[in-house]
Specification:
The complex is a heterodimer. Chain A is built from 11 helices and no strands. By secondary structure, chain A is mainly alpha-helical. Chain A has a domain of 62 residues. Chain A is extended, with a radius of gyration of 24 Å. By secondary structure, chain B is mainly α. Chain B has 2 domains: 32 residues; 133 residues, no CATH class. Chain B has 9 helices and no strands. In chain B, helix 3 packs antiparallel against helix 8, helix 6 runs antiparallel to helix 7 and helix 7 packs antiparallel against helix 9. The longest helix of chain B is centred in the N-terminal third of the chain and has 28 residues. The relative contact order of chain B is 0.09. The chains are: A mainly alpha, B mainly alpha. Chains A and B meet through helix 1, helix 4, helix 7, helix 8 and helix 9 of A and helix 1, helix 2, helix 3, helix 6 and helix 7 of B.
Chain lengths: 225, 179
């Protein structure tokens, strides 16, 4: 699926950029834009040039983001290792067993994956994005340990991911901060609407995931695999 | 409302120090060699960071190209007939499309919309609710699966986008109701 979306995005970008350049060329927009600055810079004055620069710039940004994650990752993975060793994570996992058993039927009880997932969801709810990503990745590593096919996502991983992307945040800190900086009379007005919207998204996502898993399991049972 | 906000602010402030305290105190109590274990765990941080690079490059490059080409405007045009149907101001549509693709991109659109139409206008209210109600799905899929070297994400992205669509539509509905 991702293969097609990725291919589609890049193809559309290139064809659309080229198309609008050709259109602009014949409607002579490009020439006037360039003339007003006194010189022609093909990289900036054509859509196709802008798309190319954007691609190269984004490749650099991706590495910066990944490198930037390393320190925070190390901090949280270190802390999680201590919590795992002491049995703290197991206690945490046991406490939320009634919920997680239903969402993740294939994960053994008090598996470290459950503890990491709970920590990640709690961090997301509080808007602690610095802690949420490392904890989420830790959860993915634990889920990978019990995944029979190492290059393919397991059902449990997808359930976790969908809960994560529709994340219910009690404090949407970024949005509130920007609203406040622009002089809103009531910056935190969005809190309740955002929680309701995110809850609906989570319910729809989890229902969809569980429906798909239900039918896939049935088909598997029918074909006897 | 004010007291709730105060409680939440303090909760967010104290969460991390509390977690660090609880983990270390319990570790010490259980006689875990805390320093050694910390270092052992932290070592993985570097590997994870490096492991996600190819996935992140692939995803961010495609999204950047799509944005630069004006693809968002194109999709907005395609979906425009739907906006009337759910009482969504046409100006907000690019925000809804950008949200799952790019965090910084949607911050840009949101800020722009609030500057042009007013922070406390319906458009400003709706776009910031949208920002607060979902995550950047494409980024999460790339980073989370990338961290464990999973190439086939199966139905994760379509379901993630379906959930986003449900959340964004709800945001439109709720904002119209509350405004």
């Amino acid at each position: 699926m991702l293969n097609y979306i990725w291919l589609g995005m890049i193809m559309i970008s290139l064809l659309f950029a080229a198309g609008s350049d050709i259109y602009d060329h014949f409607s002579e927009k490009q020439v006037t834009a360039a003339e007003s600055r006194g010189q022609v810079n093909l990289n900036k004055d054509t859509k196709i040039g802008q798309v190319t620069s954007a691609a190269i710039e984004a490749a650099g940004t991706a590495v910066q983001i990944a490198i930037g994650l390393i320190g925070v990752m190390a901090l949280w993975l270190g802390l999680m290792k201590i919590a795992e060793e002491s049995g703290f994570i197991k206690i945490l996992a046991r406490a939320v067993k009634p919920v997680t058993r239903r969402l993740f039927p294939k994960i053994p009880d008090d598996h470290p994956a459950v503890g990491a997932m709970i920590m990640n969801i709690a961090a997301n709810m509080l808007g602690l994005s610095n802690a949420a990503t490392p904890l989420g990745l830790k959860a993915m590593e634990e889920l990978q340990k019990i995944n029979p096919e190492k290059e393919t996502a397991s059902d449990d991983m997808i359930t976790f991911l969908v809960i994560n992307t529709s994340a219910i945040t009690i404090v949407p800190a970024t949005a509130i901060a920007i609203r406040a900086s622009l002089g809103s009379a009531n910056p935190q007005q969005i809190v309740v609407p955002a929680i309701i919207s995110a809850t609906v998204a989570t319910i729809v996502g989890v229902t969809a995931v569980k429906t798909i898993q239900h039918f896939m399991n049935r088909r598997k049972a029918a074909t006897g695999r | 409302m004010e007291t709730i906000k105060l409680i939440i602010d303090w909760l967010s402030l104290l969460a991390i120090p509390f977690i660090i305290f609880a983990f270390l105190a319990y570790g010490g109590f259980k006689k875990v060699r805390v320093y050694e274990k910390f270092v052992e765990g932290a070592k993985e941080g570097f590997e994870v960071g490096v492991r996600i690079i190819p996935y992140l490059v692939a995803m961010l490059v495609a999204i950047a190209m799509f944005r630069a080409s004006g693809g968002i405007a194109l999709i907005s045009k395609l979906f425009a007939p739907l906006t009337n149907l759910i009482n969504m101001p046409a100006e907000v549509l690019p925000m809804a499309i950008m949200r799952p693709l790019s965090g910084s991109g949607s911050i840009g659109i949101m800020t722009e919309l609030m500057k042009t139409h007013g922070v406390d206008s319906l458009i400003g209210f709706m776009s910031s609710t949208m920002f607060g109600s979902t995550e950047t799905t494409f980024y999460v899929v790339a980073v989370y699966f990338g961290a464990v070297n999973i190439r086939n994400s199966r139905y994760a992205l379509p379901v993630g986008l379906l959930a986003d669509a449900a959340g964004l539509t709800t945001a439109v509905f709720i904002c119209n109701l509350f405004y």
